[in-house]
Amino acid sequence: MDLMNAPGNYKTPDTLAEWALESGRKNNYKVSVFDKETLLALGMHALLSVSKGSDQPPVMIVTDYQPEKYEKTIALVGKGVTFDTGGISIKGSANMHLMKSDMGGAGAVLGIVELAAQLKLPVRIIGVIPSTENCVDGSSTKPGDVIGSYSGKTIEVIDTDAEGRLILADGLSYAVRQYKPDVVIDLATLTGSVIQTLGYEAAGLFTPNDSLANELTLAGEKTGERLWRLPVWDEYKEEISSDVADLKNYHGKPLAGAIVAAKFLEVFTDEHTSWAHLDIAGTAFGDIEFAPGRSGTAYGVRLLREFLMQQ
Predict the structure, then answer these.
(1) Could you report the per-residue pLDDT of 128-149, keeping only the tens digit for each?
(2) Which entry of 36, 72, 91, 229 is annotated as an active-site residue?
(3) Nearest to 128 by CA among 53, 20, 55
(4) Which of 220, 175, 168, 212 is nearest to 64 (CA)?
(5) What are phi and psi of 252, to 5 degrees?
(6) CA nearest neighbour of 84 among 50, 44, 59, 45
(7) Which candidate, 132, 13, 138, 130, places its Cα nearest to that of 88?
(8) Cβ–Cβ < 8 Å for 293, 309
(9) pTM, entire model
(10) Bridge partner list, 74
């Protein structure tokens, strides 16, 4: 919550990294932080493309809570955009100040990994957090640019304000390929579309796996952090097809925005059979009873704790 509520000038990608490193020292789990040079060497070009307009360097934070005995490895990937102007596809000014909250997925992943270590849950948990600002500068990625990615796939950037899915693309590919987890779940304040669909009462749940969908939904019902499942049918694939790259990051249509974003992310899971995407744009930051105005809610921490307990 403190990270969510911090203004952009007090919260950079390095701030999240420092928080993770300190938490890892206190709670006995491993934390690695990949700096810009390491990201270049690894080929994290989608994450790097979003960061080009900011003078704050991007990072990839990887946390690894590994108990003495465990049977399952769960990878959690959190969107860590510490401030989002929209880039060249700039947002309107009326609510841009709220975009300090665009790292809600990262906050949830940081929180649940720390909590799991404190509770000594018998599940290995990998947390992967790609983090950057999305700002405007002469070096910014432009609409129409074609970029690479850690997966090797090329992406046509139609809208620079669809940046969360770009950094998650590298995070998901890295988590799946490096750790081969039994389950991979990403959390992100990803689309306004999910708020239009569900309001502020539930997050969007996207997964082709019925069993995983049921487990997450039940965990949400038990904790009050509700989820509502939306489809990821292959009919939506054509919305991300590109004439000049392997895929594009936005379809430019006023329909199915949250679903199309999920279909984009699915491409970078290497067809993992137990992947779920949680679009928490409407639930991670809002009016809450114990803080004045809009604040971080810590949505996802309780839900994931319950889910992990069942594993």
Answers:
(1) 999 999 999 999 999 999 999 9
(2) 91
(3) 20
(4) 175
(5) 70, 25
(6) 50
(7) 138
(8) no
(9) 0.97
(10) 125, 183
Burial of 71 (0-12, 13-18, 19+ CB in 10 A): exposed
Residue 165 bears catalytic tag = yes
For the record, the structure tokens of 188 come out as 């992100």
Q: Which residues contact 222 (CB under 8 A, 6 or more apart)?
A: 306
pLDDT in tens, 162-202: 999 999 999 999 999 999 999 999 999 999 999 999 999 99
Burial-class residue 79 by CB neighbours within 10 Å (0-12, 13-18, 19+): buried
Tokens of 275: 């992947």
CB atoms within 10 A of CB 37: 9
Active-site hit among 52, 79, 124, 165: 165
Residue type at 22 in one-letter notation: E
Tokens of 110: 């940081």
State the distance between the two ends of the chain, measured CA to CA, in whole angstroms.
Answer: 26
Would you call 186 helix, strand, or coil by DSSP?
Answer: strand
Cβ atoms 250, 224 nearer than 8 A: no
Nearest in space to 88 (alpha carbons), one of 161, 156, 148: 161
CA neighbor of 174 nearest in space, from 193, 150, 195, 158: 150
Measured CA distances, 74 to 67, 113, 270 (Å)? 12, 11, 16
